[in-house]
Write a structure and sequence with these properties.
The chain is 55% helix and 6% strand. The protein is mostly helical. It has 2 domains: 2-193 and 305-335, HUPs (Rossmann fold); 213-299, Tyrosyl-Transfer RNA Synthetase (Orthogonal Bundle). The chain has a 3-stranded parallel beta sheet with strand order 1-2-3. A two-stranded parallel sheet has the order 4-5. Helix 11 crosses helix 13. The chain is globular, with a radius of gyration of 21 Å. It binds tryptophan.
């Protein structure tokens, strides 16, 4: 390799890719655990982020509501600081290569391996009246999402790790059956990616589908609502603000506070030494209010800018189609399509 070429190769940023489903407004958990890191990674990686709207069709959706949620989710990504000038951002269903590759990959996927996916087992138990084929082949579409862009890293939560392993298996199988085609993606664990727990049952992950709205903070909740949710957060009968096993409620609040203020848990402990839970909960609430304020304001502004949003996702789809088509044409050629 020529020297110049080598330099360019070394400086080439690694590609990160991730997707999020447009069902419901994101929670503080989605923000701290995922999107906030996505925003920070834009400097060091070549990033691609998308709204996984096709994946949402595996559970019954109300069409008008879904359409509204897709646009809102896209606007929220931008409001959270995902910058279309730095990152590729698009809506999955606007890029036809995803479903095309998904079909080809299903030919190298075994029934047995899809049957072993824990999310499939969980979801088919939960939606027993609608165990559709999409729910079953969901991981194949996800593999296509990732492999089309030759992603090096995929930031995913614990619940998606098995799907990423499946993606690697498929990629390896394809590469060895045909010839090297796909980059094997690795899970990306962010440095500061606290797992945010429910405010009402801190042994459970914070979820936007929780029946009790006090259990989660939506990133568009108003300051009053946020403060009252933190005020009623479940803690314990102890009085000390310290991070310890068994103190799930306090541990959760401490990690939220520590991540958003860029402070270590030790520092948080010192800061609240001698103060009661009431003061601490109030401080956490205020921190969250201030962290989410610019997002809510930007979202309110973007909501009225339909033409701008359309321009951004149209451009995103165009670029995503161009990039992913390179991989797809290689694949088609290798498997013997004319
Ligand atoms: N299945 C993911 C979720 O529900 C969303 C998703 C779809 C995704 N395709 C992806 C995440 C590709 C990462 C990479 O959270």
């Amino acid at each position: 390799m020529e020297k110049e070429e080598q330099k360019v190769e070394n400086e080439k940023k690694k590609r990160i890719l991730s997707g999020i489903q447009p069902t419901g407004i994101f929670t503080l958990g989605n923000y701290i655990g995922a999107i906030r890191n996505w925003e920070q990674m834009q400097e060091d990686f070549e990033c691609a982020y998308f709204i996984a709207d096709l994946h949402s069709l595996t559970v019954r959706q109300e069409p008008a509501k879904l359409r509204k949620q897709i646009l809102e989710a896209f606007a929220l990504l931008l409001a959270c600081g995902i910058d279309p000038k730095k990152s590729l951002c698009f809506i999955q269903s606007h890029v036809p290569t995803h479903t095309e590759l998904s079909w080809i990959l299903s030919g190298v996927t075994q029934f047995g391996e899809l049957s072993r996916m824990t999310q499939f087992k969980d979801k088919s138990a939960k939606h027993a009246d609608n165990v559709n084929a999409g729910l079953f082949t969901y991981p194949v579409l996800m593999a296509a999402d990732i492999l089309l862009y030759q992603a090096d890293f995929v930031p995913v939560g614990a619940d998606q790790k098995q799907h990423l392993e499946f993606t690697r298996d498929i990629a390896e199988r394809f590469n060895s059956r045909y010839s090297p085609t796909f980059t094997l993606p690795e899970p990306y664990i962010a440095e500061s990616g606290a797992r945010v727990m429910s405010l009402q049952d801190p042994t459970k992950k914070m979820s936007k589908s929780d029946e009790n709205p006090k259990a989660f903070v939506s990133i568009l909740d108003t300051p009053d609502v946020i403060m009252s949710k933190f005020k009623s957060a479940v803690t314990d009968s102890d009085t000390e603000v310290c991070y310890k096993e068994g103190k799930d409620g306090i541990n959760n609040l401490m990690s939220i506070y520590s991540v958003l203020n860029n402070k270590s848990l030790d520092e948080v402990e010192k800061e609240f030494a001698g103060k009661g839970y009431g003061d601490f909960k109030k401080a956490v609430g205020e921190t969250v209010v201030e962290a989410l304020r610019p997002i809510r304001e930007e979202f309110d502004r973007l909501k009225t800018e339909k033409a701008y949003l359309e321009e951004v996702y149209t451009e995103g789809a165009r670029n995503a189609t161009a990039i992913s088509s390179r991989t797809l044409s290689k694949v088609k050629r290798k498997v013997g399509l004319l």
